[in-house]
Amino acid sequence: MMKGSQQQWPFLVPPPRTPGKEELPVDIDSSIPVSSMSKPYSDSQIEMSGGFVRNPSSHSIQSKSSSTHSIKGVSFREGHDLNPVSYGSRGASSGSNPVRYGSRGASSGGFTSSYKEINDEDARLVYVNDPGRTNQKGFKFAGNSIRTSKYSILTFLPRNLFEQFHRIAYIYFLVIAILNQLPQLAVFGREASILPLAMVLFVTAVKDAYEDYRRHRSDRIENNRLASVLVNGEFEDKKWKDICVGEVIKVSGNQTLPCDMVLLSTSDTTGVAYVQTTNLDGESNLKTRYAKQETQMKAPVEGNIGGLLIKCEKPNRNIYGFQANMEIDGKRVSLGPSNIILRGCELKNTDWVVGVAVYAGKETKAMLNNAGAPSKRSRLEKRMNKEIIILSIFLVALCTVVSICHGAWLRRHREELYLMQFYRKYDYSEPEVEKYEYYGWGMEIFFVFLMSIIVFQVMIPISLYISVELVRIGQAYFMIQDDRMFDKSTNSRFQCRALNINEDLGQIKYVFSDKTGTLTENKMEFQCASVGGVDYDNGKDISTEDGQTGYSVEVDGMVLRPKMTVKVGQDLLNLSKMEHTNEGKHVYDFLVALAACNTIVPLTVETSDPAIKLIEYQGESPDEQALAYAAASYGFMLVERSSGHIVIDIQGKRQRFNVLGLHEFDSDRKRMSVIVGCPDQTAKVFVKGADTTMFKVIDKSLNLNMVNATESHLHSYSSKGLRTLVIGMRELSTSEFEQWQSSYESASTALMGRAKLLHKVANNVESNLKLLGASGIEDKLQQGVPEAIESLRTAGIKVWVLTGDKQETAISIGYSSKLLTSKMTQIVINNNSKDSCRKNLDDALQLYKKLSNVSHSNDGGHGVGTNQLALIIDGTSLVYILETELEEKLFELASKCTAVLCCRVAPLQKAGIVALIKNRTDDMTLAIGDGANDVSMIQKADVGIGISGQEGRQAVMASDFSMGQFRFLVPLLLIHGHWNYQRISYMILYNFYRNVVLVFVLFWYVLFTGFTLTTAITDWSSVLYSVIYTSLPTIVVGILDRDLGRGTLLKYPQLYGSGQRGESYNGKLFWVTILDTMWQSVAAFFIPLAAYWDSTVGGSALGDLWILAVVILVNIHLAMDVIRWYTITHIAIWGSILVTFICVMIIDALPFLPGYW
């Protein structure tokens, strides 16, 4: 039936090949997630008869040097045709429908622009190897020069100043400086009035200039790198910045891609290439990319290519999507995400690739995504801005009092003004008598008001912004250097990715945590299996064959052994060798499914013994790796994978299975399948997935007892905290295979609705399955998780766990992690309708009231007491609750619970749960996770923490902080969070205190000068007060001071509650601080005044005494509040007083400065 016919593989993902393996002479017609066999097989190839594959000859596995051991794994995520949630950008999404946290069909709402039909208006035409025609007038595309810097020499000053003046306080001080330049309002020297603002602007500008210089230097290095570009039939070196869209580029192994380019050919005969996307998405896993066989055969490495036209979508930010068509020899070929390699990716395990540039420079997907996470502002900073507004109002009130009093004074002395200096009508101070400009009573009051604002401007602490930034940098340094948060397993330290929310770590009330990879290690270990309705986990399955060596096979004198050994059950091992019995056949199919139904790439690794080599399984999913190692331990060892087949060593006998198609796992189907041609000339589809979806496609009529027994075993596994998967299969008849092949070819080449069509094809083939069994995989808790959760709970922090695992698994992990305890009353909500959800919520609230009343009567009215509640709710229920009127009831119930466990939740539902609390309370929220499915939750919370785990680095890249283990939350929050909050809180209040003290001293002096705003304190001392005299001590104390030691904070987690209650910075403390300044300013002003009341000491001398008194006063006040003294603290505090004395003497000694005497 199929001899000589083309045969397409499924579009979603083509199976990867084992790097370094010798390929069979099989022509691949399509390299997008589909493969096809474009020619009839020769005698040396696989023979097809009646649609089934004959047993091919086995191929020996080739060794891989130990240097390859650094490869982390292979990811095929880019091959997804279903991309339910895009975290990177809205630019890639289509449609305008709002995101709904509770939506059940998150993945079916709409596809990205990569899967829409490309019309002429939205298309980009790229003529291969014809950049002139591609970039003709009117269609010129961006060059490949990139620029990440913000400024140029000409734009730095205006743009930097524009950005800095986004701070309202800076505008305030600019207005003050401008007012002081007017002759009628000149209180300070013109230069002195500009100094504070100028210094702050200068320091910030220097910092920004240095950062931008580094970006300029990086851009220059990047743009001047060399690439091999096809020019006149030969490849020549060309600078990256000179590359144009349409040019053909050759990239060698371990080189970085200069632009986004569609693959035309690779060094592999089947068109396969491997890339590492660390620079793009942070993942170190290898990804597979494919060249079309039509272009692969044109041998572009020799310069013989041209006449091709690519019609692709316009540039967008979706790094996981791409759609294009290629016209070649009158034939239109579709291109997908697996045919394009993006700028910044690195070529691995491939000698060379040749491609054509389709997006260059700023239009590449990497550059379009070159933006940081949304900026967050700390709660203290928001409150500080409110207090500054209050101080501004207080300043206006003070100036109003002075101006009104001055007006009253003028009215009372109006008859004497002619005789008084500054008010008489004629000025006799100069030889030529001039008429003095007296503006009248009303204008004089107005001028005095403006002059008051200038004199009292120090009320608003301009240096506070710079000081807080410097303190946060110092705090971040000590957090990074803390060995308590150093992960030895990954050799990684704590990372502070956002410097502006350090103090929020001391006010957290809710922690939302992922489970897999966050609470657990995400290192899966196969524990047990249910095969054919029999549970092979009876407590005796703890031995391994051949002692500790596990399964091994000898090939050409070389011993191959799985890198990881797995516990095997003797009964299951014996049945695996009895293929001809019914039970043995069932076990055989089950283990073949474990070895074949995956995207694992096997690599051979050298050992110290040259006669022994290890098989290492690289893959994106730790679950797949665990199942592959389990199959290998039972004698079904995957030893080779190519673009068209896999080789499994079954009990020492090499057997080749031709991979005819593979539908990868997606969040809608929650299962994956592979269609293989087996050695017994049959075609089978093997499927594995979550039990909730697998039992819907299992044909229960085949063996109902087996299905019931398997379901019972699954419940038992889940209760032990194991992750479960169900395995099924179906043998395809010739007609079924032909129907699938035809449907798939139509779906994979469709220009519109491709994703939905492919999804339908997968659902059709994954039906009426025979149940093979189920697996139980253990994901062990990370070290210290139970103790960490206990400490956080004692500290008054509520821990909620949001996971995609099934309910039984999540509950088991909840008990082992101490999230759930036997003393808790569990409330379980898992419903399939809105009405039932409403009823369950009402019943749960009634239960809480009953328990509360009972406890109230038993403990004398002190609350719920020992009746702690734990809410367990699943994602299906959240569909009917989130963003409906039931949200309020869920919030009311959840806020009363000690623990909340959400199971089977989608990524957007995780963000919805965070929003549930964040939108209804003032409590601070923290989200922690390790995978891409946690990104929305991390960005939604007030503080987001990424775990550097096994699931890539998307969570880390979207987070504010990152660390290696969940247990590091304890020192981060209880120690550093507490310290940061206490330090910043005190620093803000102290800055208000020291500035208001000086303002009141100036105000008291105004009372003795007829409210004329003359000052005894020199201009320079006034402006240097916040910048030099008192700034350094506050910074040092803000970085180093500790109210409590590490041991005390860890021993008594309840101390963390001070931050949650806002005890160190609140409205009461603010007003107490302001009142405190009043009597202290009275002492600082009137004591020196009284001491020299009847003396001949002038105003300037008293001004020096007053500024010295204020500096000594505020520094002694600071010294009294310091709890932990260091040498640098002494130097900063006492040194500041000494510097003040020196500066005052210098100012008084220089004749050209005001105040010289």
From TrEMBL:
Which intervals carry biased composition (Polar residues)? Answer: 32-47
Instruction: Indicate the enzyme's highest-level EC class.
Output: translocase
> Where does the record place Low complexity bias?
57-72
Membrane association type: Multi-pass membrane protein
Q: Which residues bind ATP?
A: D514, K515, T516, E624, F665, K688, R723, T803, G804, D805, R904, K910, N933, D934
Read off the InterPro entries from this record: ATPase_P-typ_cyto_dom_N (IPR023299), ATPase_P-typ_P_site (IPR018303), ATPase_P-typ_TM_dom_sf (IPR023298), ATPase_P-typ_transduc_dom_A_sf (IPR008250), HAD-like_sf (IPR036412), HAD_sf (IPR023214), P-type_ATPase_IV (IPR006539), P-type_ATPase_N (IPR032631)
Question: Biological process GO terms, please?
Answer: phospholipid translocation
Q: Which reaction does it catalyse?
A: ATP + H2O + phospholipidSide 1 = ADP + phosphate + phospholipidSide 2
GO MF annotations in UniProt = ATP binding; ATP hydrolysis activity; ATPase-coupled intramembrane lipid transporter activity; magnesium ion binding
Co-factor requirement: Mg(2+)
Stretches the record annotates as Disordered: 1-108
Q: What is its EC number?
A: 7.6.2.1
Short name of one Pfam family for this protein? PhoLip_ATPase_C
Q: Which residues take part in binding Mg(2+)? A: D514, T516, D930, D934
* Top-rank taxon, per record: Eukaryota
Report the CDD domains cross-referenced here: P-type_ATPase_APLT_Dnf-like (cd02073)
Q: Which GO terms describe its cellular component?
A: plasma membrane
Which keywords, in A-to-Z order, does the entry hold? ATP-binding, Magnesium, Membrane, Metal-binding, Nucleotide-binding, Translocase, Transmembrane, Transmembrane helix
Location in or out of the cell: Membrane
List of catalytic residues: D514
Q: Which residues cross the membrane?
A: 168-186, 192-210, 388-410, 445-466, 992-1017, 1023-1040, 1069-1093, 1105-1124, 1131-1153
UniProt record similarity statement = Belongs to the cation transport ATPase (P-type) (TC 3.A.3) family. Type IV subfamily.
The record's listing under PANTHER family reads: PHOSPHOLIPID-TRANSPORTING ATPASE 1, PROBABLE PHOSPHOLIPID-TRANSPORTING ATPASE
Name by which UniProt lists this protein:
Phospholipid-transporting ATPase
- From which organism does this entry originate? Salvia splendens
